Amino acid sequence: MSHAGMCDAPPLLEARGITKTYPGTVALNDVNFDVRAGEIHALMGENGAGKSTLIKILTGAETLDSGAILIDGQPADADTTQRAQRSGVWAVHQEVMVLPNLSVADNVMLGYQPRRFGLVDRRETRRLADAALAELGLSLDADRELGSYPVAIRQLAAIARAVRANARVLVLDEPTASLDAPEVERLFDVLRALASRGTGVVFITHFLDQVYALSGRITVLRNGRVVGSSTTKALPQVDLIHMMIGKGLEQAIAAERPAKSGQGEVAARFTGLGRKGMVEPFDLTLHAGEAVGAAGLLGSGRTETAMLMFGAERADAGSVEIAGKQQRLRSPWDAIRAGLAFSPEDRKADGIFGDLSIRDNIAIVLQSKRGWARKLSRPKQQRLADEYIARLNVKTSDAEKPIGQLSGGNQQKALLARWLASEPKVLILDEPTRGIDVGAHADIVRVIEELRDSGLALYVISSELEELVAYSERISVMRDRRQVALLERDELSVDRIVAAIAAPAGEQ
Ligand SMILES: Nc1ncnc2c1ncn2[C@@H]1O[C@H](COP(=O)(O)OP(=O)(O)OP(=O)(O)O)[C@@H](O)[C@H]1O
Ligand SMILES: [Mg+2]
């Protein structure tokens, strides 16, 4: 595609005066937004700002109440995903596109498989798929099931499919949430290459660094309205954050905490806990009133460690003591009854009951723990839900809404509330701040500190090292599925953690 005359040409894609209302919520209010050929445009905003709704409308996954969508300056039909795609506008979802049981080739060529004598021509399908993948610098086994590849690769295959079908605008909603650093780099390289060929890219993320690394322009939404749009170069990070949260930064930055005095009782002691091929045996003690952080790269074994602690994976070595009692954790229920709670990383997949109310979703673990014979009364459930909605600042008009209607970040907060409401002695959090915005981030950090100071023992897995340093008493550093260091409070710093992660095993 030629770039000549790009500046005075109408935008590739334009949304004019888009309004979208859900019962009780104006998700989008007179929103204008445009995407130019060859640009990477970041769409930013706090949880619930309307980002996903806007891209759903642009890509035909949701209908608009009023407003118009134009392509090349002409009114376009984006009433369904197929129609939007036919106009060249494609969403790249890590979950949606992929038919995991089909081969890579079939996924890339879906709907476009070449035919011979009325049948799909498998060789030609594979050849074209290989070519489409090669264009993105990917070489995959095109005959393998796509589902057997990691998320990062599936996402690139989804991009290859869109490119192959002549996508002119690619829209990615939080594509990097579960990728590690090299995977993110690879995705970015692909997006940059596509942009340089004239594709327009729209990109939603909560990682500010990524926005600055990748985008040329930023549009910010707040409460369903556009607050501003600017080239990335001309928008300092502080201003961006101000635009997003619409208030002072003070709240968004976790305060330094005073030095810790004394140590609480032992809440949990894990001795030689491990499982062959999963996590090497480790020792760890968690005291009441302290947070122990877990740092390490993706795949270093942090989540597996948490699963062993919680009985979600069966240990084949070691012992667990909780509040002074030896426990055999054969399942998460044993762990919950013993006083543990575990808020897993992939909250979307794990245990959201989309049709149930927020109240039901919050009360459910406490209810099961008490046993269904001792039913929580409705008013009690309501108080519980209201308390946690306020405490975690969940954005919703009320607790009776189906949880599936909350924005992604607010669903995460509600699920965290579920575990807090279960009154645990030990709380394990896996990436509690992933995928949520700066404001919500600060809410969760504040809650972690409050919980700690109220006497809970916490084990927090996080890739946000500065955050870990701020609230942790000690930090367990994992690498290659073993605990390679347990840093004490006076040696905690981001540099020290990075050094521990980087040092080859055995040199600790
Ligand atoms: N299907 C739905 N039914 C009712 N309300 C909805 C629905 N989808 C979204 N909303 C509401 O619309 C608003 C905007 O949600 P949206 O998902 O667009 O936010 P977002 O900016 O993508 O947030 P996040 O960063 O948390 O993903 C929220 O208040 C949300 O509760
Ligand atoms: Mg969203």
TrEMBL record:
<keyword id="KW-0813">Transport</keyword>
<dbReference type="InterPro" id="IPR003593">
    <property type="entry name" value="AAA+_ATPase"/>
</dbReference>
<feature type="domain" description="ABC transporter">
    <location>
        <begin position="253"/>
        <end position="505"/>
    </location>
</feature>
<dbReference type="Pfam" id="PF00005">
    <property type="entry name" value="ABC_tran"/>
</dbReference>
<dbReference type="InterPro" id="IPR050107">
    <property type="entry name" value="ABC_carbohydrate_import_ATPase"/>
</dbReference>
<keyword id="KW-0762">Sugar transport</keyword>
<protein>
    <submittedName>
        <fullName>Sugar ABC transporter ATP-binding protein</fullName>
    </submittedName>
</protein>
<keyword id="KW-0067">ATP-binding</keyword>
<feature type="domain" description="ABC transporter">
    <location>
        <begin position="13"/>
        <end position="248"/>
    </location>
</feature>
<dbReference type="GO" id="GO:0005524">
    <property type="term" value="F:ATP binding"/>
</dbReference>
<keyword id="KW-0547">Nucleotide-binding</keyword>
<dbReference type="InterPro" id="IPR017871">
    <property type="entry name" value="ABC_transporter-like_CS"/>
</dbReference>
<dbReference type="InterPro" id="IPR027417">
    <property type="entry name" value="P-loop_NTPase"/>
</dbReference>
<keyword id="KW-0677">Repeat</keyword>
<dbReference type="InterPro" id="IPR003439">
    <property type="entry name" value="ABC_transporter-like_ATP-bd"/>
</dbReference>
